[in-house]
């Protein structure tokens, strides 16, 4: 982790400007009847999980270009995650991926204790063939025509639950790549039935206080059909499995032009919004940094979440899920954690009473302005103050670079050479 | 209607070639273990409804370019529909749109009797302000914030049911344009709640032997959000309303790249597939002739339907819903009725036992070939023979042109001048 | 126009807050090495044209819902445009559409003089059949197979040039709906050749100091192919016609997910960027208020324009082109004019020297941050100060509402009843 | 290669049925005024290249699932390619990818001689870091800000030309993944300038009788911008480089809903259509088997090619470019070669004189029918007869399976274990 004196020194150089900016913004918000301190308090209490795999450099099917200091395993990954939380104070939990992060539970718990982190949802992996695995998922996993292969995939998910119980997790996230590349390759109905049967076995193994998150995705790695292709299918799954089953929304898993915030609103109404995998995308499941492509869309999602705050049973899980192909993953995750908080803060600024008045009066323009004015408010001083007061960095990026952390781990961790992706 | 001797003369000129083609195809299918006569019988029993509004020239928001002989009202429209059925023997029912087609029930029934037609689902219209209407739907109809406006829209739908009862219809189709053009303009959740409440009132007025079809659409006329935007929302509606409520799938109402046949499969599994509005599209709700843009996609939809044939309660309604902007609407509807039958015939050719074998064996290539070989079989001789044996035309298009029907009605019906669309 | 004392009174109530906000923002920008006054000066000098047709309520093919005080003709429209400019000081020119706005040139010039407006690009209309027109554009206009129809369309465009010369315009914008609804309906190559020949005749009639803008669009009103479907075809047209021909970019005329700012960059490099029709869209050519759906995308377009500022010959035309279906068109146009200026102001904040340094160093994250920080700066105080100093309104919307202008014109102009769009 | 007696035996079992089908189809075509033999002759003369990398199992960024008998290198790949050509008689040439296929030229030429194959276009690879490469392409290759990296990429391309000269190739295909993942990461204009400069150096090294093909792609592996993102940019490149430069169209490289056949028509008119990478896709660059998703679209592309046949200088290159993730690559390539020929045969059936008549008469429906009737003709007997007469297999798939080739090479070539894609 980073030497606290580095953080203090970096903060000291920025404290006066921050105080001035915070005060100016506070005055402006006060004119709108808003308390900047109240918003800051809500922002400070908002956390988002980071995925263990996010701290490694990602790639495409064409290539992967590793950076210096790639983590060698889960313990290195937890070190990197700890830095992210240390500077942002926004990411106290880490989500593990099995078997990538398999390790003795006691060691994981001990490491978490040392780094001040806890464990978020567990993630199973049946979209790859893992070393030592007896049967292949080439033609599907939980929906495979073969009962043996389905059983193997179910057993793996149950193992993930068991690992999770041992380390304090409370949720299992299931994403499968099952589907087909050609019309006819699978029977769309029978494949879904097999998936549901397998999921029912996993659900049966779920502890009472756990939640099961299923994730839909329109395409990739299957290119004609995907068994859980959209939120409609995802909702059917949750309804079939039971009350502990909820739908996870990954922002990059939808068809072009789809209105994602409407899906969020619908799942909230159905009582089945499990949570989010945050990232951004322009074309497909691009897995870019959250808010990098369409920050207004991210704000609109949070507008729905703030609208639903306080409803009974409303408690979605929040996680970043990005592929960092050309940036330092720690930097991207720190900024994305900030950008999620930014969208939340902006959504908190919306004057909901006025908004409803305009909506009910058919004043489309003023209603739209309510959201647009909230969105274009620069809430960075609120975010920075919340970090600073919690012991984090006013400017996490500058502080991280000043710390020399990347160079330090690059010296300890062996260099990884570039390699092709899936195409060869 | 067209003089039967015209049909006979036209058929006579084509009968020998048809017999030869039918025999050659029969021999080829026999080699695959298929009986051409059995397939022909199923095709002959397959019908698709035509929409009354489809026989008039359609337009865009930019312009409408009427053709000669535009129908002046519902009775002219029924004449045109009768010609379509006379030549194709595939379209015995007509779907009415209220208030466009409002007329004394007795007159409608009498006209239907004369033309040999019956009435399919009723369609309400709350996406326009009709002459004499007291309150405007500018800001929504069934989901409008105003209780008075919602009540007006509900009453209109109930009136549609009443008209339908008087003329022998058994279903109501509800499509609304409600939504919003700007983020914030409506509360996505409250708007949906209002829609559901209004629909519950309509549902309560539904006779026991009727079905209620709700139709989803991603966009247009609303350009940011639409209250029934996709099949997921549509399914929630059906689940909320009750067992008589089903989801209607219009092939042009989905986001780009969406796999429509999967939606069909899912709705079948949910027991909520109400039926179809057939057309084709490349970009949005283009409302082009069925099969004109992607005939393989149409086949894949029918592949799901044939797969589900015979399941308890499986009885989807089939209707064409197209906008004929540059063709003679009668010609387009005749060909589209044929093309729907074509897709059905091709789907009947699939060897389902082999298909399942390949699917279960993970033989993606052979499974895909099962569908592709069925699709590329030229089943025109089957369609033509089914028409001919039922008293229709071997070649409906040539026969229609030979009949002079369009010139005849153009002489009777006054010319309509071109006009702008919605933009001015 | 609006009584200046209304503007003064409204501004007086907001002046102190504006001064404080402007000062606070100025201090913050000064820290980044930026002069707020210099940016304000550039913003104040930035203007965007309004389309005459934009001040009427728009519609879709399904319906049009007029509002109170719809303009009865071009002179009412110019009154409305004058109000927009009076309050925003951003829209000194109006773009006319022929034949919609046809009127004696002297009267147009006189009215412009009275209202303080001038005339921007002329727009021809061959996508509708106008009353009295002898030949129909149902099957195309400038690319129609019929030489007579093409000649009629060419003559109409030349008439537009002549009207434009008489009223001080310096550009002709040509957008056609020509294309096809079905594969095979037109020969894609021969249709394009015909279009090019017709355009060459129009080009030949263009005065030396005029520019010709051609506009591409992926679809609508044609739903299979459009003769000028994308910027590649548009570029070929400009190259074929000559140096006065340039490509116009309408933000809503592209395929889903297309990177519009790249197109802008490419057309700049080719020396053929004619200008913009600003609006916003989520699905198709939605013609929503500029920046309403994706404000970051608008900013990225302006980022390219600021990057290119000062290059020899770089002088794109800027116009709003929106359809106001659910808002008061004057209000939408005022806000959109502001939002275009907002994007320009934000783009001016980008530290281009730093940006290039990060780009050349492969520091993707810092480069991206350069743009994101500029975008999230709330530049409203700059826009308001620029308006206020030019005699406009600090808050155009509140001032407009306070003025009672809409009620006043609604009293003078007869109510228009709702009507169907193109579908019936 | 496969024992000729296997082919003979397989053909013998199918010859009678083929003769009957060919005769029946011939009679039907004769009625339309078409000679089946003339069409067969054109089909037999039509060839499509296969890519060396296509015979290995492909993958995604998530995983790759190898099959039995994966080729160990270029010589195994050429063996597999030889089988494809032996059975289909449609694929006499192979396209190499450097450095994947690097080998002594004399050995390559010798192997080609033994297998009866020749070499098609050369493909360079600067989208991966190859073992031993000194500088990384992480931030771009031909458009990298670093002159050294660009020089390395240029040198690699020139090496590809040299290898190609030694083995009889006559074209270089350049596809780069260069672009950016975030707005601001690169300067869109300067990056394109750098690309053009680098390409000019490659162009200068091109022998006089060679062609240079550049390939556009909307996204992947770059997820915000791609330097050659569409055909418009591709055309600018060809215009800038010179007459030997042409644009390559990969069917899967476009934005959703884009009309690809229009792009083909435009590039033909510009004299810059270099050729094709055939495959099919539903969502992105899915690289599925040609014609598997939208066979009508493939037909429409060939309709443009047949329309342009015989124009001076019209000579596009045809190649398959697919990723075979779930099928035996040899089987997919054989069927795709057939499907390309199928689309060509169908396009040859179009009655172009009638088509033009309908087009010029504004008879949209009959024009569309001309294409649709050609498309739905089952031309399999023509394809099979062409293969059979050339010594290939009437049914390549059944013959291949009967031959036991895959089992045989699986016994010789070591098994490859599954592995993750680019994400870990």
UniProtKB/TrEMBL annotation, chains A, B, C, D:
Highest rank taxon of the organism: Bacteria
Pfam families with a match to the protein in the record: AP_endonuc_2
TM region positions: none
Keyword NADP in annotation: no
Keywords of the record: Isomerase, Manganese, Metal-binding
Domain Xylose isomerase-like TIM barrel as annotated: residue spans: 96-287
InterPro entries, alphabetized: L-rhamnose_isomerase, L_rhamnose_iso, Xyl_isomerase-like_sf, Xyl_isomerase-like_TIM-brl
Protein name, UniProt field: L-rhamnose isomerase / sugar isomerase
GO molecular function: isomerase activity; metal ion binding
């Amino acid at each position: 982790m980073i030497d606290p004196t580095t953080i203090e020194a970096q903060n000291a150089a920025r404290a006066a400007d921050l105080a001035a900016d915070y005060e100016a913004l506070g005055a402006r918000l006060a004119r709108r009847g808003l308390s900047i301190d109240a918003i800051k308090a809500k922002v400070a209490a908002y956390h988002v999980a980071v995925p263990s795999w996010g701290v490694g450099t990602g790639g495409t099917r064409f290539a992967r270009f590793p950076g210096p200091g790639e983590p060698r395993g889960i313990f290195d990954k937890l070190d990197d995650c700890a830095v992210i939380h240390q500077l942002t104070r926004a990411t106290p939990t880490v989500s593990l991926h099995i078997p990538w992060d398999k390790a003795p539970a006691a060691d994981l718990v001990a490491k978490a204790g040392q780094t001040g982190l806890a464990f978020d949802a567990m993630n199973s992996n049946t979209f790859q063939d893992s070393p030592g695995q007896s049967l292949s998922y080439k033609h599907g996993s939980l929906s495979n025509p073969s009962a043996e292969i389905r059983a193997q995939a179910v057993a793996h998910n149950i193992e993930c639950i068991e690992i999770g119980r041992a380390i304090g997790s409370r949720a299992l996230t299931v994403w499968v790549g099952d589907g087909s590349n050609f019309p006819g390759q699978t029977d769309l109905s029978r494949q879904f039935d097999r998936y549901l049967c397998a999921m029912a076995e996993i659900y049966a193994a779920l502890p009472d206080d756990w939640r099961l998150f299923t994730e839909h995705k329109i395409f990739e790695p299957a290119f004609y059909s995907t068994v859980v292709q959209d939120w409609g299918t995802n909702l059917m799954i949750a309804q079939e499995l039971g009350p502990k089953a909820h739908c996870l929304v990954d922002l990059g898993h939808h068809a072009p032009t789809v209105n994602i915030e409407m899906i969020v609103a619908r799942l909230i109404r159905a009582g089945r919004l499990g949570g989010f995998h945050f990232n951004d995308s322009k074309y497909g499941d691009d897995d870019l940094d959250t808010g990098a492509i369409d920050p207004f869309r991210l704000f609109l999602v949070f507008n729905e979440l703030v609208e639903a705050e306080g409803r009974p049973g409303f408690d979605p899980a929040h996680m970043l899920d990005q592929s960092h192909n050309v940036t330092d993953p720690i930097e991207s995750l720190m900024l994305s954690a900030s950008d999620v908080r930014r969208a939340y803060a902006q959504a908190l600024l919306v004057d909901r009473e006025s908004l409803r008045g305009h909506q009910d009066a058919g004043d489309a323009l003023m209603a739209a302005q309510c959201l647009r004015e909230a969105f274009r408010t620069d809430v960075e001083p609120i975010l920075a103050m919340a970090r600073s007061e919690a012991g984090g960095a006013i400017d996490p990026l500058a502080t991280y670079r000043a710390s020399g952390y990347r160079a330090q781990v690059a010296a300890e961790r062996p260099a990884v050479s570039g390699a092709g992706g899936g195409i060869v």
